Amino acid sequence: MSVSKRVNTIISALSLTLSLAITSVAASDNVLTVSLIQDVEQRQTAFSEIDKQQKQINKALGDSAPDWQQLEVLSAALTANSALLQQLFVPESQLNSKAKDKVWDDNMKFKAALTKMDSNFIKMDNAIKQQDKDTAKAALKQANSTCRNCHRQYRSRW
Questions:
Q1: 113: closest CA among 80, 89, 78?
Q2: CA distances (Å), 27 to each of 22, 23, 32, 38, in order?
Q3: Model pLDDT for residues 59-98, shown as the tens digit of each residue
């Protein structure tokens, strides 16, 4: 094979390799973008569910004879949603998010607030399992307070 044919073969092989690499990177970027969008959607859903579940639990705890079985189901779902949030605030997932940049700029403080909220929901869950209405109400009130403070600092209104 002549030198020019070998050079052409090498150039063709390099061109194909480069083309495949570019395609692979583009596909990888698309997968990453889809994953980040899903993270945002999942955390928005989790927050909506937490809000709804908090209201249901608060109302049920206000009854003179609470349905403890129903409260346990609601509380288990709420604590699961709360725990899920810790892993859904990943870097670069601000796309289409209502979260302020401060969430990522001051991530340790933000994660501490999430942990505080989560801890109060766990306290509430344990109190519900023990059918301790007063402790459950107090823990829910503390969790709600954490939610309000966090929203003021970390959630964008638009």
A1: 89
A2: 9, 6, 9, 17
A3: 999 999 999 999 999 999 999 999 988 888 777 767 667 7
